[in-house]
Amino acid sequence: MATGPLVDPRSDPEVMFRILSEKIAVKVDRAAMRAGASVAQEVSRRLTAELDAAIAGAQSTAGTMGNLVQQAVQAAVDEALRTAVLNATRVHEEHLAQLALIDRTAQTAHDITAVKLRVEEEMRRSGLTRITAADPEAFNLVNPQEHPDSSAYEVLAPAYADRRTGRIIQRGEMRRMPSAPAAPVAEGGSDR
Q1: What is the DSSP string of 155-166?
Q2: Quick check: 149 and 173 in contact, CB under 8 A?
Q3: What residues contact residue 191 under an 8 Å CB cut-off, 6+ apart?
Q4: What residues pair up with 177 in beta bridges, in sequence order?
Q5: How far apart are CA 97 and CA 18, in angstroms?
Q6: Of 27, 43, 122, 179, which sits 20 to 30 A from 85 (CA to CA)?
C-alpha cells in the first residue's frame, strides 16, 4: 500500500484557522467564567499576541490567506470578549439586586425569620447550595492535631456549592470529635 508524503496540517490555512479559533474560544470562555471581564480582556490581549505570532508563521506558508485568518481570528476574539463582558455585567447586576433585596428585608423585617427566608430564596434562585454534612472535600478541618484516630466530625460553619457545577464556592469549617466509646459487651452466658 503506497502512501504519499505526510503533510503538516499547520501548513493548511483552513486547518490553522480552525485550530486557532477553537483554542481562542476555549481560553477566553475559561478566563471569563473564572474571573470576569477584566481578566478576560487581559487574556484576550495575550491570546491576540500569541495568535499574531502564530499567524505570522502561517503567513509565510499561506501568503494572503494569513491576513484572512488574522481577521477572522481577531473577529472571533472580539466577539468572545464582548460576550464575556456582557455576561460579567449581567452577573454583577444580578448579584447587586440580590444584595439589595436581602438588605431591604433585613431593614424592614421585625424578626430574623423573614431575613433567613429571603436569604434561602436568593440562594435557591442563584443556584447556591448550603452543605451541612461534614465532608473533607468541602470543609477545612480546624483541629487537625486533635483526635487523630476519630472519624466523627462536627460542622462549625456550612460550606457552599454551585448547584449546577458542584464546584465549592466557599469552604466550610469542621472539627474532629472524639470517637464514641464502644458499647460494653455483656459477660456470661445467654439468657435461655
Answers
A1: EEE-EEEETTT-
A2: no
A3: none
A4: 152
A5: 40
A6: 122
